[in-house]
Amino acid sequence: MSVSRLNLAIRVAAVLAAVAGAGIFARASAADAAPGAGALARGDDAYAHADLPAAAAAYEEASHDSATRVTALCRLVRAQSEMAEDSTGESQQRLLSSAVTHARDAVAAAPDSAAAHVWLAAALGRQALHEGPKSRLALAREIKSEVDRGIALDPDIGRAYHVRGLWNRNIASLNFFERSGAAMFGGVPQGASMDNAIADLEKAVALEPDYVNHRLELGRTYHMMHRDDDARRELEKCIALPPTSSARDARYQVDARQLLSRLPHQP
After folding, report:
1. Is 200 within the bounds of a domain?
2. Beta-carbon neighbour count of residue 233 at 10 Å?
3. Of the candidates 110, 107, 100, the residue with the CA atom closest to the CA atom of residue 28
4. Is 192 among the domain residues?
């Protein structure tokens, strides 16, 4: 086997391990014997190869088996949300809407699943980025409610703190005109702060230190707070990590390099 093929095999195995072992995904030993288990495994393999359309198709198939339904729906939400990041226009809107629908289906199927609530919050967060002010504020309240519910059910899910960290950052960084305009739609949700954003993202990193996007967003938030030494540390760690925590790690590391290049040079 060539060195390049060996490296690919190692990367695929690492991503598969991350997907299978991530605390955010529901685990059920019964799923191993379920008819949907094969489709779930095919989805994980496609995801490890960054083939998001194939992963989404396999996860949707697995979602029709009651034994693998919630796990498959959560992974389907992830695949569709990541596909939406690289889409535009109507295609992007369809993916975002479908991800939210599947996340709501997961919550309906398993109201006490922390993963389902967290993935609903994550899907709503991506959808909110493409909505108008009124809808965005309404979604902000639901995002906070869902992510807090997920943390109450399981306080050890890194993505939950990532989502809440971005919620804090996005609300806290609204300017005067945005806050004034929000008054017409019920006002800005209370309790958000940049300090809370940093605390949540630091918690996400502590729980999942090898998750590339946690470190990217923590570095970005440090930079917004003019803590550039801390930002540099996190961005350098982000770039140094193996790109095996998600199908979009390579893109996140490009973003980290670009942000790192804009930081003030050290004396």
Report:
1. yes
2. 15
3. 110
4. yes
Question: Is pLDDT of 232 > 50?
Answer: yes
Read off the pLDDT of each residue in 40-60 and give the average, rounded to a whole number: 97
Instruction: State the number of CA atoms in the 13 A half-sphere of 39 facing the CB.
Output: 22
**Residue 71: domain span:** 3-208
194: pLDDT strictly greater than 50: yes
* C-alpha span between 44 and 56 (Å, rounded): 10
- Spatial CA neighbour of 245 closest among 50, 26, 5: 50
Asked if residues 160 and 114 have their Cβ atoms less than 8 Å apart, the reply is yes
Nearest-angstrom CA–CA distance, 245 and 11: 10
Asked if pLDDT for residue 169 goes beyond 60, the answer is yes
Give the integer Cα–Cα distance in Å for 47 and 61: 15
Contact assessment for residue 113 and residue 160, using Cβ atoms and an 8 Å cutoff: no
157: CB partners within 8 A, 6+ apart: 23, 24, 114, 115, 118, 150, 151, 207
Q: How many domains does the chain have?
A: 1
- Report which DSSP code applies to 265: P
CATH at 85: 1.25.40.10
Q: Which two tokens stand for residue 208?
A: 């999942």
Give the CA dihedral 55, 105, 152, 213, nearest 10 degrees: 30
